[in-house]
Each structure stands twice: as C-alpha cells, then as structure tokens.
Write a structure and sequence with these properties.
With 195 residues, the protein is of the alpha+beta class. 18% of the residues lie in helices and 34% in strands. Strand 5 (97-104) and strand 6 (107-109) form a beta hairpin.
C-alpha cells in the first residue's frame, strides 16, 4: 500500500503503479473529502498504457486509512477486455456495438471512448458524434456516419471531467438495408397474392 504521496512518486520503467504522473485523476482522488468511496471513483477517458499498444480506461478509488487518503487503487479495463465482454450483437437491424464514452453538450466524445467488438458496425473511436433525440431512440452522427441507439449517463463521481455514457449503437446504413429488405419481402408477398 502506498503510504504517502511522496513515497508513491518513485518511478519504475513507466509503470502506472509507481508513476502517479501517468495516473489520470490522481490529484482529484487524493483530495477525497470523506464522502462514500463509491461516490468518489474516477473512470478515466481512454489512454494508451505507457510502453504498450494497449488502450485502456482506468477505474480508480482513493485508499483511505483513519480518514486520511493514503493513495489510489485501481483497475484497468482494456479494449481487449471490452472486445471479449461486449461483442457486436446481431439484430434484425444490423450489428450493434456497445461503447463507453464521455458526453458533453449533447455530443459523444469518441476520442476518450472505449468500445466493444465493432464487426459489421463501421464504428471507430475517433471524432465526435452529435446526439439528436428521436421519439423512441436517439441519432448519433458526425455528418459522414450515422447511428441509431440509446444511452444511459454514468454520473461523474468527481468534478473536473465530463459525464460518461454507456451507449448501444446500430449503423443507420444497416438499418436502412434491413428496412429495404422488409419492404421488398412485403411487396413480393403482395404481388404473389394479387396475381
């Protein structure tokens, strides 16, 4: 366990456990004010682990002993993990993808996002998607790509960062293809019935 901030400043080959300069939200968590620890977790935007190719989101909480913050403990949620846990799911409207992304001003900020497997979804974690409300679903678009879906907001536990969302998306192009197939099927059925 890390006893004090000055002790935790040692650096071993860029390892996050020992180099607090590379831990997103470290200073915020060290200023923990005694609320429930559950209310003080920090979920980072997507970062690249130093010395690796791996993209991760870091979930961290303060380590408290006798009412004083002694350090930070956390776990990394890797993109590889998300790909295994959240595969793209086939639906009648096309493959769905699950994404955790920061949200601000009705925009999904994909540069800080991490996604499940994206097979057949044309989805990449770059850029920004504007969110527009529909009657039963939301539309997420950046002008060149559009998705239908819905999201829930994971409220920020600490100040100084955007809320995060859990989003499920279906590419509009897949949905439109499914609708066209359905219409063709019904039209052929009507024509067969009439003749």
């Amino acid at each position: 366990m890390l006893q004090e901030k000055r002790i935790s400043r040692c650096t071993i080959a860029g390892n996050l456990e020992f180099d607090i300069d590379n831990v997103p939200g470290y200073e915020i968590l060290m200023d923990f004010d005694g609320r429930r620890i559950l209310d003080s977790c920090y979920l980072s935007n997507r970062v690249t682990l130093s010395g690796t190719w791996e993209q991760v989101v870091l979930l961290s909480i303060p380590v408290v002993l006798e009412g004083k913050v002694r350090g930070v403990c956390g776990v990394e949620l890797s993109e590889l993990f998300f790909n295994m846990v959240f595969p793209s799911v086939e639906s009648p409207y096309g493959n769905m993808v699950t994404v955790v992304a920061p949200i601000a001003d009705k925009r999904l900020l994909l540069d800080g996002a991490i996604s499940g497997k994206t097979d057949g979804t044309y989805f990449t974690t770059d850029g920004t998607l504007l969110i527009k409300n529909g009657e039963h679903y939301k539309t997420y678009s950046d002008g060149s790509r559009t998705y239908f879906g819905n999201h829930i907001v994971i409220p920020k536990a600490v100040d100084g960062r955007s809320d995060l969302t859990l989003v499920t998306l279906v590419p509009e192009i897949s949905y439109q293809s499914s609708v066209a197939k359905n219409r063709t099927f019904w039209l052929c059925g009507v024509l067969v019935f009439l003749f």
